[in-house]
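Exam revision sheet. Question 4 asks you to relate a sequence to its structure. Input first:
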Amino acid sequence: MPTRPPSPESTGRPEAPATATAPALLLRPWRAADAAELAVLYRDPLLRRFLSHSIPDEAGALRWIDGQRWRESGDRFAFAVVERSGAAERLAGHVVLKGLA
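Answer key, structure tokens:
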């Protein structure tokens, strides 16, 4: 399948521009620096109802983030979804693209 070369101004990161009703979203690789915020999110009882695993603490979040990196060597890519407000970012979700090979 042919691919289109990136435009010169492309950052190489998928982005969705902000609108009047939604903040800007960015897909980016998971970072070790996300671990503390991820551990806090996993304490939410409503969120945990929809998850197949648990992340009990920041060390567990780091292990989970490391586990997402191995996917990049195969047919899956995992991304953090973050909301952007100026230079600040806040975790908003997780996306996995499958069947890319």
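Marking note for examiners. The chain has one domain: 23-97.
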